[in-house]
Amino acid sequence: MTHELLVTNVRPPHGEAIDLRVVDGVIAEVGPALEASSPDARAMDGGGRLLFPGFVDAHTHMDKTLLGLPWYRNEVGPSLLDKIENERALRRELQLDPHAQSMKHARLAIATGTTHIRTHVDIDTDWGLQGFEGVAQTREDVKDALDIQIVAFPQSGMLIRPGTVDLMDEALRNGADVVGGLDPSAIDRDPAKHLDVIFDLAGKHDADIDIHLHEPGELGAFSLELIAERTRALGYQGRVVVSHALCLGGVDEAYLSRLIELLLENEITIMSHGPSGLRPVPSVKRLYEAGVRLCTGNDGVRDAWGPLNMPDMLLRAFIVAYRNNLRRDDELEMVLDIATNGGARVLGDANYGLQPGCAADFVLVEGETHVQAIIDRPPRSLVVKRGRIVARDGECVE
């Protein structure tokens, strides 16, 4: 049986009001004054609302959010290792249920118009595969409303915690999608071995790679050069993401230009989410204008690291713009492109977009312009995933 949805009078970016005809979860036709092809079609008036493709959160941590739990008083120390060790202890103390927590995260993300997520899940010798297994169950539970990619992520270090590599291998055998890495020099203190292991796992499982790189300045730039070298040598162009890449904000212009050349040559994507703090961050505009692949995401949502992030990609676009001092409408449109098309490229969704033949993943929002929606962030009026309504008026209905 054919399922048809006709949504009329919606406004896409940079265009006049149009109608969308969706058949069996795919956009079949786009244009003015469309008519349903079936008497059983469901028709909806978009009321002149703004039309967005589904938002893509290309970097988050669904397994360890504290959403819905009693308020956690955060008094953790300032260093990265302080945060990692504190979080590991808190998971044990709270006996955190990664399935229950990731479901809370998923429902809020769906309600705010997110249709695709890449989530890192902690793999370590304390946590084992609990995080992966819990989020894998959520992935299955919400598969009709949200696409979830899982990164097997050694948050506590990999080489410094023997047994972690075997657990990552097991997670990948059992359905994790991406190999994660973390600060090859600063955490594992053996960047060559760290990258050997990550690329070996990726090759074994035909998986993409996503490496957290917090290392600053020239230390981080050194690690980035090694990542680019491995990417080229092993033919992994277009399959590597470097998340955060703070070093790109901490080197001089000449060195930055060299690093950008390496990113372009090896089709490496940079994920930047507009992080707080005093450290310089990569210039999103500089990278975008150079042609570097970019994506963004909400990082840890209301977790042991801090309470500031929420699963709302319009809010994330605002934060990225604010952190990068982007004020012009064209600059804010650039950030929207990163939060939609940029993330979809990373997740490998070739059927993403608002054109005929694309999966019917879209969001309707009240507002005058798409840029204004970043500033006002009204409730999402309608969220559609593969032609099915999954959220309405800011509430998940799945």
Folded structure, characterized:
The chain is globular. It has 398 residues and is of the alpha/beta class. The two termini are 22 Å apart. The strands form 2 sheets. Strands 3-2-1-4-13-14-15-16 form an 8-stranded mixed beta sheet. An 8-stranded parallel beta sheet has the order 5-6-7-8-9-10-11-12. It has 2 domains: 4-53 and 353-396, Urease, subunit C, domain 1, CATH 2.30.40; 55-347, Metal-dependent hydrolases (TIM Barrel), CATH 3.20.20.140. Strand 8 (178-182), helix 5 and strand 9 (208-212) form a beta-alpha-beta unit. The longest helix is centred in the C-terminal third of the chain and has 19 residues, at 329-347. The mean pLDDT is 96. It is built from 11 helices and 16 strands.
Shape: globular
Q: So, the CATH homologous superfamily of the largest domain?
A: Metal-dependent hydrolases
CATH architecture of the largest domain: Alpha-Beta Barrel
Largest sheet geometry = 8 strands, mixed
Q: Reading side by side through the largest sheet, how are the strands ordered? A: 3-2-1-4-13-14-15-16
> Span from first to last CA?
22 Å
Q: Helix and strand string, N-terminal first?
A: EEEEEHHEHEHEHEHEHEHEHHEHEEE
The helicity comes to: 25-40%
Whole-number count of domains: 2
Radius of gyration: 21 Å
CATH class of the largest domain: Alpha Beta
Percentage of residues in DSSP E strands: 15-25%
Structural class: alpha/beta
Given as residue ranges, the uncertain stretches (5+ residues, pLDDT < 50) are none
Total of helices: 11
Q: What is the β-strand count?
A: 16
- Mean pLDDT comes to 96
CATH fold label of the largest domain: TIM Barrel
